Amino acid sequence: MSNSLNRTGRTDNIFIKSHGPKTPLWRYYIRSSLDFLGFHQPIEYCNNQKRLNFEAETLLLWKNFGLSVPDILYQSSSELHLSFIRGRTLLSVLLESFDLKIISMVIKDMNYRHRLAFTHNEPRLCHVDANLRNILYSKGSIIHVDFEMGRNYETVERWATREVSKLMVSLFKDRSSQEIDNIIQIFRQEYMHKRVIKSIVCSKLKNSKKKYEKKRTKSFNLYRLAKILEKDLKPDYRKILVIKFRNIGDVLLTTPLAFNIRHHYPSSDIDFAVNQGCEDMLTHNPNIASIISYSRLRIKKLNWLSQVREELRLVRQIRSNQYDLVINLTEGDRGAQLALFSGAKKKLGFRVRKGILSKLKIFDHLGLDNDQKWQHTIEKDLQFIELLNKKVVDKSVSLYWPKKIDTEIDILLAENKVRHFVHIHPVSRWKFKCWEDDRLAKVIDYLQQEKEIKVVITCAPDNQELESIDKILSHCQTEPINLSGKLNLKQLACLSSKAILFLGPDTAPMHMAAAVNTQVVALFGASYPKLWGPWNNQLDVNLFQDIDGVQTN
After folding, report:
1. What are the backbone dihedrals phi and psi of residue 478, each rounded to the nearest 5 degrees, phi first?
2. pTM
3. Which residues, 6+ apart, have CB-to-CB distance to 254 below 8 Å?
4. What is the Cα–Cα distance from 141 to 100, expressed in whole angstroms?
5. Which class is 239-387 in CATH?
6. I need a labelling partner for 181 at 20 to 30 A (CA). Which of 142, 187, 201, 448 fits?
7. Domain boundaries, the chain
């Protein structure tokens, strides 16, 4: 936004944005004429009105996805009036201090936006003109400005490749060799889109190193980046399978493992095999390539011959995927059986507790189970990163959903006239985990009467759980908003993310609320908080102990 920034890079009033001819003028007039005649041209060479509309539409699109851009205050046929932003360009910030944390923040932001772009097939979520002059740093966050470049006729992959190239050239400019190496290392750690990485490697390695060295063009350091990325595209493990045949909450708690595997093997395909009904804990996760669903309940109802056929079908499917590494996260025989017949060159897992498979050496390395080491489920799974001779870099639990889920929940809350609320999910299919109905009713009444905070109550669309909700409500003097049986798992997680507090027993929704960084009050009866306590994404340690009473993490 050159007409809004002075030479020091500090912002003046970022209010008025207009578009003039792009230099050199002869090229601009030729290409704008071609655009007028109906030939595809880059947006920056189109007429001023089209460029202005493109920028306004892009700003609104980014706002709809919750991304940081200026607000449009007014739009005329020749000008955009944008909200004031008090900050500095990244160019001036990084010239003053070479801050790797800020560089990491920028690349993480790009990686996140590219995930959205690929998911929604929306190339305009890529900022093609992402040089450091067009990214502001304000109050610890980054804000993108100046969206007058793009090619509407190109794919998301091509847009993303252009943004990566533009940003990396801008970051590399006037940096020492050591600083460039640091930037490349951050990019390798934070940027996950293999298709874009392949595109960069192919485009930059077309020419020889001597050509780049001779000209010493700005592409020389991109060539260095491409050479390093080329090696990353040949990983130790091309395809990795993680097996977790457990319940919904157990599967959610494997997401830190998925993140760490992706971090250390950025170009590997990471698949998960889980029980049917648990898929929503992993879908839309950028670290996971595909999910294999096992229809456990359906198969159990079949006769023994049909069960054998189904098991063999699953084995053939996994074997045909030609996995290089299999990690089995359960002690049962089904996961061990699949690992044994997977054909993977390396297999990690827990010892099988009983049966014929317990006598066989299935795994190359064994993790410590709860009989050997009493530890939180997340840390129990993450020990396999160390068995791969890697370091755990992050223990955060993550859960993703599409933008339309936010819209659906916002509409639902607006219909019920709710803004600030406590989310209570009081029931579990395991009745021994549930608190007494009358006590829950007293908590609901206290929150709504004494604290004047609305309560939203939920449960699964299960008859027994719905009956339990009716019993709790029969004890209530107040009337909470009852969404029981009306939400799917993604909607439930989104609802928790908008709550000021979650209250419930040791269930999957409790772990979901913790994963979206909502404050959680969890009720534990017969289960163990040291193994299953709500995980605090802000900490790297589990503070829960095997004791009675109130504990915090």
Report:
1. -105, 175
2. 0.65
3. 242, 244, 272, 329, 381
4. 14
5. alpha beta
6. 142
7. 2-232, 239-387, 403-532
